[in-house]
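I would like you to help me understand the sequence and structure tokens below and explain how sequence relates to structure.
___
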Amino acid sequence: MASITKKPNREPPYDRIKQAILDGTFEPGFALVETAVAEFCGVSRTPVREALSRLEQEGLVKKTERGMTVRERTPEEILDIYEVRIALEGTAARLAAERHTRMDAIRLEHILTLADEDDKDLGQSHAEGNREFHRGVWRASHNESLIDLLERLNLHLLRYPITTLTAPGRWQESLREHRELVVAILAGDPKRAQEIAEHHFTRARDIRLALWEHDFKETG
């Protein structure tokens, strides 16, 4: 279980606590005692209380009998997240096919080129490139409400440290699906773009669940 050590800096408490949750410093189930978290952030309890309230609204922490704790990871949550994400990503792809601009096309093609040239080990580099690609699709949808929902949903997935791109063959499979999606978007084919996006994230859901099952067996 994590312990809290004071690391003073000028980051707002919300940013400090959120990052500590996402990078695993504050592990799932960890009790966020206000006095200890305030010491960790180098601030008083009031801004910490406000930060925890905001994080509760975003679903990263929750109230329990022990007070505020970091939200646990569960396979049920994975299913919930992807059920919504498949629908939203499909919508984003459909809108991108209908609304993309020339600048959107240039951006997506550039991201694909960078991904093809990325020969680093699987892990953080590929995960960041993958997120950048999907944000490019979101931006091409030109729907700010949809983008906001997807950003919030993505925040929950960041709590799961192992990227689906570590599954054997997934990186190349993902690149192929990204290329197919860009072709459909630039061709102005909303139906095809939506189908590709929904298939892509259904596959990601299945891989995520398989990774969870493997990790559970390893640690259980």
The chain has a mean pLDDT of 89. Residues 13-70 form a domain with the Arc Repressor Mutant, subunit A fold (CATH 1.10.10.10). Strands lie at 61-64, 67-70.
